[in-house]
Amino acid sequence: MAVDNLARALSLAASSGGGDTTKLEESINTLKEDVSTLETNLENNTNNLQTNIDTLENNVDTEVSSLRQYVDEKVTAAVMGDGITNIVQLTKAQYDDLEEKDSKTLYLILG
């Protein structure tokens, strides 16, 4: 770990000068604690982000499912309507030539 390497280098530098290393060691320990806290916070934040992503994915799935059901219901109602029992596709000329139009038939005019 980079902090450990830094701590060793600072310790060597301080001890080779013959000075008191107590404050330096306290600073190194504080730095190690700070790094440990940052690592813990990073892990917690990562877990929280993943939880939020999972929640959003579930919400999207639910909304898509609801929207599909809504569209299916509306399309079925629009195409079938009340009493529609037959769907026929024909040209405008063929439609115009029909002597009698059936009220239970949906005519799709092509072209």
Short structural description:
The protein is built from 3 helices and 2 strands; from the N terminus they run ααβαβ. It has 111 residues and is mostly helical.
Radius of gyration: 38 Å
| Gross geometry | rod-shaped
Low-pLDDT runs of 5+ residues are: none
Going across the major beta sheet, what is the strand order? 1-2
The total beta strand count reads 2
Number of domains: 2
As a percent range, the share of helical residues equals over 70%
Biggest beta-sheet profile: 2 strands, parallel
Fill in the keyword field for this structure.
72% helix, rod-shaped, two-stranded parallel sheet, single chain, 111 residues, mainly alpha
3D structure, described in words:
- The structure is a single chain.
- With 111 residues, the chain is mostly helical.
- It has 2 domains: 2-80; 82-111, no CATH class.
- The protein has 3 helices and 2 strands; from the N terminus they run ααβαβ.
- It has helices at 2-16, 22-80, 92-97; strands at residues 86-91, 105-110.
- Strands 1-2 form a two-stranded parallel ribbon.
- Helix 1 (2-16) runs antiparallel to helix 2.
- The chain is rod-shaped, with a radius of gyration of 38 Å.
